[in-house]
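Bench log, entry 3. Co-assembly request; chain sequences pasted below exactly as received.
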Amino acid sequence: MAINRKVGFLKGLGYKGGGPMWAWILHRASGLAMVLFVGLHILAGFLTQQFGSEAGYAINAIYTNWIFQIVIFFLVIFHAVNGLRVVILDLIPALLQYQREMIWLQWLTIAPLYALVLFVIIKNLLGL
Amino acid sequence: MKKITLKLFRYNPETDTKPHYDTFEMEAAPTDRVLDLLEKVKGYEDGTLSFRRSCAHGVCGSCAMRVNGENKLACKTLMQDLKGNKVVVEPILGLPVQKDLIVDMEPFFDNYKKVMPFFINDDPKPEKERIQSIEEQERFDDTAKCILCGACTTSCPSFWSNDEYVGPAAIVNAHRFIFDSRDQGASERLEILNDQFGVYRCRTIFNCTVACPREIEITKAIGEVKKVIATGNLE
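Structure output for the full assembly:
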């Protein structure tokens, strides 16, 4: 009997696909993280508004935590810029031959945006 | 010559319940190919080792396998192009493993057949050949290089998760006819590829382009088919 064709998560991760494959994985992961983020945000709002619940305040405390903000801002910026890269490549197939350059351009776009976010978060953290 | 360790995926459906790995120590020259190492093992160490090979010159597409985690043709992969002294050879992903490095290619060819990979033209046969300009031929020159080894389709995470997705190889072969000025079956093929298991399962991951031993710009070809479906314009 043959071994079935199933490719598990770890087996798939073991494939050496390089930068674009990791960008796709991070895109998926950041998308899921944002769904969770927005979902919890709505839940926290509902709990605090309707019941004045402690659980709602606890969730909001996580949201305002600077470590959480550093992570979520990275995920949101990455997801947006990477998504734009894929949309542009899908709309203009002629650019697909420059996909390596596009990845560099993507990181060059993310870097200043994220640096600005870090600057603001750290500035607030230090109370400047 | 250098000493290398060759680690091979093994599975015998008659005796094994689970796959395992066998390790072989051997000397290899920088110009040895992975296929040469497999032949050495089969000829001198373990005759039961099973793998596909035919032309051994990168034309037939039989020996696609995962070498150090990447899809490659064993006959085109030189030792000097691999890092380190350890070579791990495993079957390609997403197809049932029949024995050792041999996978069942039927699901792959079923997807290939879906896109009608043959010339369609109902016009009366011309007296001589059907003339085509150099520019018209160049339009599908790249995708005409495909040897159906399956390295692209089996490197694609979308195909791993669902084998109903036609996969990069089938789209490449559809592209070869869709953009052929002599062919008249483009609209039918585009309709097939506009299905939920057609081109839009491609997530622009680029594994296929990197894996192709013929250096076909596969993601670009898929992108061109996507664009034709979206715009209805073959130009």
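Helices of chain A lie at 9-13, 19-51, 54-64, 66-91, 99-125. Chain A has a mean pLDDT of 92.
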